[in-house]
């Protein structure tokens, strides 16, 4: 393999390792994880649900995490109430056409969300207008908000109950951090919800 390709690969590995090491050493991050898992388990046990929203690669995260909860993660167990607000093209295009793209998630939160639910809002910049509007709609409806952003946090930093800010300013690395945390949260929720099924 050409040296310039090896250099690029080495650089990406180094950045990913530094990202995970920084996250692993962050005591506050572990406390936030415990809080989010507790809030999620309490909501699900009450009969509430978890809503997920994000743009682009973050939309894929929203669908991925909802899928892990509805189906399974580490072991077989009953499905958990989770909805990705990124998947229904008829709804998304109708709202985009009738109200504008900034409202594609907020309108769904208004329609599907109930007090006591939780919204997982994902934006690498923390400033995506449709995510910020969804957060405000959740606030109005008595829905808690868990945010996933980059280092600065953007507008979301002050709007979320919990905001996970990845220790990076690079979009791909922020997304890698989000994906790791999403898997960790799904695994912890499953573990806490189904004590008797633990292997």
From TrEMBL:
Its cofactor is Zn(2+). InterPro entries: GmhA/DiaA, Phosphoheptose_Isoase, SIS_dom, SIS_dom_sf, SIS_GmhA/DiaA_subfam. It is found in: Cytoplasm. The keyword tRNA processing does not apply. The keyword Cytoplasm applies. SUPFAM superfamilies: SIS domain (SSF53697). PROSITE patterns: SIS. Gene3D superfamilies: Glucose-6-phosphate isomerase like protein, domain 1. Keywords: Carbohydrate metabolism, Cytoplasm, Isomerase, Metal-binding, Zinc. Pathway: Carbohydrate biosynthesis; D-glycero-D-manno-heptose 7-phosphate biosynthesis; D-glycero-alpha-D-manno-heptose 7-phosphate and D-glycero-beta-D-manno-heptose 7-phosphate from sedoheptulose 7-phosphate: step 1/1. It comes from the Bacteria. Binds 1 zinc ion per subunit. The reaction produces a racemic mixture of D-glycero-alpha-D-manno-heptose 7-phosphate and D-glycero-beta-D-manno-heptose 7-phosphate. Homotetramer. Belongs to the SIS family. GmhA subfamily. HAMAP family: GmhA. Catalyzes the isomerization of sedoheptulose 7-phosphate in D-glycero-D-manno-heptose 7-phosphate. This is Phosphoheptose isomerase. It comes from Rhodanobacter soli.
């Amino acid at each position: 393999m050409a040296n310039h390709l090896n250099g690029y690969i080495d650089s990406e590995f180094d950045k990913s390792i530094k990202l995970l090491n920084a996250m692993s050493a962050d005591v506050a991050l572990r406390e936030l994880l415990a809080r989010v898992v507790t809030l999620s388990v309490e909501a699900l046990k009450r009969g509430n649900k978890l809503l997920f929203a994000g743009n682009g690669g973050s939309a894929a995260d929203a669908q991925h995490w909802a899928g892990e909860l509805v189906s399974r993660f580490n072991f077989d167990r009953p499905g958990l109430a989770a909805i990705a607000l990124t998947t229904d093209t008829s709804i998304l295009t109708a709202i985009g056409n009738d109200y504008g793209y900034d409202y594609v998630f907020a309108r769904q939160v208004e329609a599907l969300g109930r007090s006591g639910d939780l919204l997982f809002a994902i934006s690498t910049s923390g400033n995506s207008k449709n995510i910020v509007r969804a957060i405000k709609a959740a606030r109005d409806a008595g829905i808690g908000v868990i945010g996933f952003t980059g280092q600065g946090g953007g507008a979301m930093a002050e709007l979320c109950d919990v905001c996970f800010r990845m220790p990076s300013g690079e979009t791909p690395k922020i997304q890698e951090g989000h994906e790791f945390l999403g898997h960790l949260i799904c695994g912890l929720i499953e573990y806490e919800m189904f004590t008797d099924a633990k292997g």
